[in-house]
Design goal:
Order of helices and strands: HH
Oligomer: single chain
Distance between the termini: 104 Å
Strand content: under 5%
Number of strands: 0
Shape: elongated
Region (Disordered): 1-31, 63-100
Biased composition (Acidic residues): 7-21
C-alpha cells in the first residue's frame, strides 16, 4: 500500500470559531480552587470508604480467628471422657414420663 504525500498548503484548515460564542480564556483562580476542592472531597470520600471496607474485613478476620468458648461440661464423667461428642443426643428420645 502506498501513501501520497500532500503538501501542507493542501491540508484542510481548522474550522473558524462561531462569532456568537465567546472565546473563553483560562479559568479564573476561584473556579480552579473550587474544582480542586471538589476533587479533593471526592477522593477523600473514596479513600474513607475503602478504609472502612478494609477495617470491616480485618474485624471479621480477627473475630473469625478468635477461639470460640467451649460450652460448659456437665458433671457426668461420660461427657468429660468423650469431649464434646455425645452419642446419646442422636439416639431415640426416652419414652414415658416416669423414671423407669
Amino acid at each position: 500500500m502506498k501513501f501520497e504525500f500532500t503538501p501542507e498548503q493542501e491540508w484542510d484548515s481548522p474550522p473558524d470559531p462561531d462569532p456568537g460564542q465567546d472565546q473563553e480564556g483560562p479559568p479564573s483562580p476561584a473556579a480552579l480552587i473550587a474544582a480542586a476542592g471538589e476533587r479533593l472531597h471526592l477522593r477523600t470520600r473514596t479513600d474513607l470508604d475503602r478504609l472502612h471496607t478494609s477495617l470491616n474485613r480485618m474485624l471479621y478476620t480477627v473475630e473469625a480467628a478468635r477461639p470460640q468458648p467451649e460450652p460448659p461440661l456437665s458433671a457426668s464423667g461420660s461427657e468429660q471422657e468423650s469431649g464434646l461428642f455425645r452419642p446419646e443426643v442422636f439416639g431415640p428420645r426416652p419414652r414415658g414420663g416416669g423414671g423407669g
